[in-house]
Amino acid sequence: MFNDGGDRVVLWRGSALVHERMTLAVTTFLALLALFAAAGVVVILVLAAAGWLDGVREMLGAAPLWLAFAVAATATAGSLYLSEVAGFVPCALCWYQRIAMYPLVIILGIAAWRGDVGVRRYVVPLGGIGAIIAAYHVALQRMPGLPSGACSLDAPCTLIYVERFGFVTIPVMALIGFVAILTLLVVLLPSGAKEET
Predict the structure, then answer these.
(1) For the chain, where are the alpha helices, taking DSSP H only?
(2) Comparing C-alpha atoms, which of 121, 109, 130 is closest to residue 62?
(3) Which among 44, 86, 90, 122 could bridge 94 via Cys, Cβ 3.0 to 4.6 Å?
(4) Is 177 buried (19+), middle (13-18) or exposed (0-12) by CB count in 10 A?
(5) What is the spatial distance between Cα 188 and Cα 185, in angstroms, rounded to a whole number?
(6) What is the pLDDT of residues 92-141, one digit of tens each?
(7) Taking a C-beta distance cutoff of 8 angstroms, is the pair 75, 173 a contact?
(8) How many CB atoms are located within 10 Å of the residue 38 CB?
(9) Taking Cα atoms as reference points, which of 99, 104, 93 lies closest to residue 169?
(10) 3-class secondary structure for 122-174?
């Protein structure tokens, strides 16, 4: 059996190729989930504008809390995969978005378990701040000339690690996640559900 350093290089290159393909598959899956969530937001907003959500809200009860929890958990798991497994170094704006998203997993998980729509008062400000940061990050990636004082040369905020379908970058996915959570809690969650003070 021929076993020198050359074999190890071939094996390493093979595992690097598997790692690259896995990252491509995961990021494509996350981008598809983001597009699905964006389509869901559009449908919810159109139905709300047409006045067709009243009966649906009451029928769903606290289910939008579980959906919002799923969005936050998926966004958190996705961001951890991208930094810890794929090796993408998060920029300062990515960290700020993480600061807004990560607590939502716990807050929304507890609220969903308890059926507590009063969580809106905590989630909406946090999700709104995260959405604003993500929107600025999207704009910064598309217009690198914008001021980016929080960003460093080691992890520039203008760097696009992932771009699927010609426009879905990591900040676009984060923005869609925040907007989906806000839409679920503000538009779809019934106001008559258990609201604790």
Answers:
(1) 5-49, 54-60, 63-80, 92-114, 120-142, 170-183
(2) 109
(3) 90
(4) buried
(5) 6
(6) 999 999 999 999 999 999 999 999 989 999 999 999 999 999 999 999 99
(7) yes
(8) 19
(9) 93
(10) HHHHHHHHHHHHHHHHHHHHHCCCCCCCCCCCCCCCCCCCCCECCCECHHHHH
